[in-house]
Here is the input.
Amino acid sequence: MILEVRDLYTSYGLSQILFGISLEVRERECVALLGRNGVGKTTTLRSIMGLTPPRQGEIWYKSQNITDICQPIVWLS
Here is the structure.
């Protein structure tokens, strides 16, 4: 398993966006997130990348739990 997302919940302030998202990406597998506007595709990717940390759930990359490792990047101008 290259990437595994387990029971991910993410919100922006009081607005809950993701409700228990889970997915698996195996080696040599190609995956797409499809859906209409506003259903959480971008938030899912932002949570996996650590830009919008999840409130609950786990993110595993190459058998390593990276949920707490993923910290948002802060840009200073």
Q: What stands out?
A: The mean pLDDT is 90. The first strand starts at residue 3 and ends at 12. The chain is about 10% helix and 40% strand.
